[in-house]
Amino acid sequence: KCETKVDIAFLVDSSGSIGRRNWNxxxxxLIDTIKEITVSADGNHVAMIHFSTRPEIVFGFxxxxxxETVELYSRKINRRRFQKGLTxxxxxxxxxxxEIFKSSAGMRTSDEVRKIAVIITDGVQTSGSYDVxxxxxxxxxxxxxxxxxxxxxxxxxxxLYQTASNPSNVFSTNTFYSMESDFPRMxxxxxxxxxxxxxxxxxxxxxxxxKPLFAxxxxxxxxxxxx
Length: 227
Known about the structure:
- Helix 5 links the parallel strand 5 and strand 6 (about 170-175).
- This protein is of the alpha/beta class and about 230 residues long.
- It has helices at about 20-35, 70-80, 90-100, 130-140, 155-165, 180-190, 215-220, and strands at about 5-15, 45-50, 55-60, 115-120, 145-150, 170-175.
- About 40% of the residues are buried.
- This is VWFA domain-containing protein.
- Pfam families: VWA (PF00092).
- It comes from Exaiptasia diaphana (Tropical sea anemone).
């Protein structure tokens, strides 16, 4: 069991490229993941935003506590409909900064509580006047550790590397189906890292591969250093 308390928010892509079937998978994965997290008033707190063209808060850190927490979170997640639309990761990050990661919304200010944001996306930030990398900086300045999980071959890993707090905070998987077993375990391992630890935790993409997806050809072509 991990001793460090966390305030963890999931920023979940619900844009058109996800598709209704994959959105249902994401919902189930998030429910299973929350079951792995000890949520209580004095323990871990969880929040969720889903986004496409517009981001929406599903629940905040201060929404639910008690013995029925997991069941109530599950209901809220299952009731959230697939949005369609475009992929504005920057707007989700901005909303997380304004309405999730602040003390009046339930974020704990103690240094003993880690603040974590996990982006889940299958695509690339939609072009606009404000880029996702700039949008991530206020959260970083507030002490929030940003992680990203890219799904499929259309993800811009270079963008995620720059958006995350550290390149080792970026994970990659080939399909939504592979998330079902890997994502809850990945989150559990992230939560068990010490606050300053930066060692990489990889989602296994293919057991026949020596390296995870992001460490292969695409990363090399972009001149990235793989941690």
